[in-house]
Specification:
Largest sheet: 6 strands, antiparallel
Structural class: alpha+beta
Radius of gyration: 23 Å
Helix content: 25-40%
Number of domains: 1
Order of helices and strands: HEEHEEEEEEE
Number of helices: 2
Shape: elongated
Distance between the termini: 84 Å
């Protein structure tokens, strides 16, 4: 009888330990999902604005210098500018020189932006839960009137949750609604 109780207790301790481990891993997975969902919402908002951009207004920048046509699709850029509803929007990656991590910023440069004119808005603010490593834009079809202009957006980053870090890559493509 004593032996069977000892075996039963051993089995219960192992089962309880497994249950605690499963619950902890589930909490980590949910935390990572929440962080990545927040970044995805920011990227979707950016893609939605690009889809509605004014025809012919897409421009990419490499190192602060405007590039056009095939140069935009041949290499990635970390900044894009376009017209939307009479305003000029810029999305750019700004990194911290010491850590290399950064955030994605949105700037509206025209007077139609009202109080937000020339105000830098971080759409993925660097926090203790997220660090953006890279943002790349690839433009296709901007110099060709027979093709629908589209932008490939790629974001690399790290999600920090519950004492662990998880690297992620999010990619989306936005094609303009109106032909140039």
């Amino acid at each position: 009888m004593l032996v069977s109780i000892a075996i039963f207790m051993s089995v219960m301790v192992v089962a309880a330990g497994s249950l605690v481990t499963i619950i902890h891993e589930d909490q980590k997975a949910q935390a990572v999902k929440t962080v990545i969902d927040n970044v995805t919402v920011a990227i979707d908002s950016m893609a939605r604005n690009i889809r509605q951009a004014t025809a012919g207004s897409l421009q990419c920048f490499a190192g602060g210098v405007r590039t056009t046509g095939s140069a935009c699709s041949a290499t990635s850029t970390q900044s894009i500018q376009f017209g939307l509803n009479g305003n000029t929007l810029i999305y750019q990656f700004v990194s911290n020189p010491t850590s290399g991590m950064g955030n994605i910023q949105k700037i509206c440069t025209t007077s139609g932006c009202g109080s937000l004119q020339n105000v830098t808005q971080s759409i993925t603010a660097p926090t203790s839960t997220i660090a953006i490593k890279n943002l790349n834009f690839y433009l296709f079809g901007t110099g060709d009137t027979t093709k629908q202009p589209r932008v490939l957006i790629m974001v690399d980053g790290i999600a920090y949750t519950l004492g662990t870090s998880t690297e992620f890559t999010i990619q989306t493509t936005a094609s303009m609604r109106a032909r140039q």
